[in-house]
Every structure is written in C-alpha cells, then in structure tokens.
C-alpha cells in the first residue's frame, strides 16, 4: 500500500513536469508530514535544469490548488544552485537528506556531501543564538510558570532539531526522527528523559502531561551543554 502522502506528491510532480518538462530533474518529499505529523503540510524539494520568471508565473497559478491539497509551496532550485549552496544551508539540506523520499527522477543526493566544518559552524551559530534568546525570554517572562512553560514548549522543536544536527555532525545517522533526536542527545550526554519530555511537547494537541515550566532549569543546562560541545567539537 502506498503511503498516505504519495498521491499528493505524485500530483505535485505531475504539475511540475507540466511546467518544466524535461528540465525537471528530481522531486523528493521530506519533513514532518512524512514523519507522522498529518497536520503539517506536505513539503517537497524539486531540482530543475533552469528556473525562469515564466516558470515562477506558471507555478504561481498552481499555488492555490497546492494549498487546497495541503501541499506547501515546493522548494524549487536549479540543480547547480543547490550544489553550490550546500555550504550555506548545511542544517536545512541535511534535514531534507535525512527524511526524504524520492518522488520523481533520480536521487538528488547520490553524490552530495555536506562538509563537517560547514555543519559544525552552522550548528554553533544556531545553538548559541538559541541559548541567548532562551535566557532573554526567561527574564522577560518574570519567572512566572505560565510564560516559562510556554517558552519551553515553543522553543523545544528548535532544540530537538539541533540535537538531530549534532547526531549528523558526529556521524550518527537515523531516519526516524525521535531516534535521531535521542542519538544526538546521547553524543553530548543529555538525559533521555529530558529529550522524551521535550519531544512530547512538540505536537501536544490534547492534555499535556509534562510540566514544561519545571523543565526549564534542566532544559537550560542541556542547551548550555550542547553549545559547549559544538563549540569544542573536532572531527
């Protein structure tokens, strides 16, 4: 049986073939929808031989139909531009590589390499920014449980994403999202229970069983630990 997202992805690929013809090189689906978050729109990357203004106009006409089908506007890149920008977006492209499923064409990642130093530098920038904003937001909250709890819940997805990037940085790979998060945490000795609690906050739509405000001290310590680990990382 085909996965639930396959029909929508095939429809998108058909639309893109209508726009680009034989210039369409590949289409892959990736992201939260493939990992079980059915509320998230389907996200896709399309690599093309060239991309013109006329192509953008043609895609713009299709955008309302994609939205109705719960498909996010696809990331469309000329193949050469994608390869030249791996050093600029190692975190973003690394996450696409981790979660992707091929929809059309050959795999665009067969000969793609993300340089560890580029990944480490991007991780450092992101984690140190996360740490600064976390401290600042706590001060602004006045230390009140309600605002602190909302701060922890709102910032948890960015932190767990960083843990998956750190797993990749250390050569620990897993396609499963939760497993990749746990493996990243283990490389820097962040407790499994804290990781489980943060993961549970990401998509909680009903009753929340985690007291997110009480997590803050341990969460802050984990962010500080991760920042130090990335800052001192060596291949």
Describe this structure in words.
- This protein is an alpha+beta fold and 235 residues long.
- The chain folds into two domains: 100 residues, Beta Polymerase, domain 2, CATH 3.30.460; 116 residues.
- The chain is built from nine helices and four strands.
- The chain has a four-stranded mixed beta sheet with strand order 3-2-1-4, sandwiched between helices.
- Strand 2, helix 2 and strand 3 form a beta-alpha-beta unit.
- The protein starts with 5 loop residues before the first helix and ends with a helix.
Summary keywords:
2 domains; about 240 residues; 9 helices; single chain; Beta Polymerase, domain 2; four-stranded mixed sheet; globular; 4 strands; alpha+beta
């Amino acid at each position: 049986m085909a996965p639930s997202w396959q029909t929508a992805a095939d429809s998108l690929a058909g639309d893109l073939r209508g726009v680009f013809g034989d210039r369409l090189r590949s289409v892959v689906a990736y992201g939260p929808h493939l990992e079980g978050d059915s509320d998230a729109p389907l996200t896709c990357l399309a690599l093309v031989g060239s991309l013109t203004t006329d192509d953008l106009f043609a895609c713009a006409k299709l955008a309302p139909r994609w939205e109705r089908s719960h498909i996010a506007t696809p990331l469309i890149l000329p193949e050469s531009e994608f390869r030249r920008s791996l050093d600029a977006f190692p975190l973003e492209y690394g996450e696409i590589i981790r979660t992707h499923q091929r929809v059309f064409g050959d795999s665009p990642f067969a000969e793609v390499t993300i340089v560890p130093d580029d990944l480490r530098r991007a991780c450092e920038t992101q984690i140190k920014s996360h740490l600064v904003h976390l401290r600042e937001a706590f001060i602004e909250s006045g230390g009140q449980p309600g605002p602190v709890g909302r701060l922890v819940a709102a910032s948890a997805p960015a932190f767990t994403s960083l843990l998956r990037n750190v797993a990749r940085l250390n050569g620990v790979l897993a396609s499963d999202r939760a497993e990749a998060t746990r493996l990243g945490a283990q490389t820097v000795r962040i407790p499994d229970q804290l990781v489980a609690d943060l993961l549970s906050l990401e998509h909680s739509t009903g009753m929340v069983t985690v007291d997110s405000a009480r997590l803050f001290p341990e969460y802050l310590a984990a962010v500080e630990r991760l920042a130090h680990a990335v800052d001192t990382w060596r291949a």
